[in-house]
Amino acid sequence: MCNPITVHGVSKFYKNVMGERRFKALDGLSLEVKKGEVFGLLGPNGSGKTTLIRLLLGLIFPTSGRISVLGKDPRYVGYKKKIGYLPEHPYFYDFLNPFELLDFYGSLFGMDPRTKKKRIFFLLEKLGLKDSYKTQIRNFSKGMLQRMGLAASLINDPELLFLDEPTLGLDPIGTLEIQDFLRELNKEGKTIFLSSHLLAQVQGSCHRVAVIYKGRLIKTGSLDELLTVDDETDIVVRGAGRDRRERIKELLRQGGMEVVGISERKASLKDLFIKIINEENKG
Question: 191: exposed, middle or buried (C-beta count within 10 Å: 0-12, 13-18, 19+)?
Answer without folding.
Answer: buried
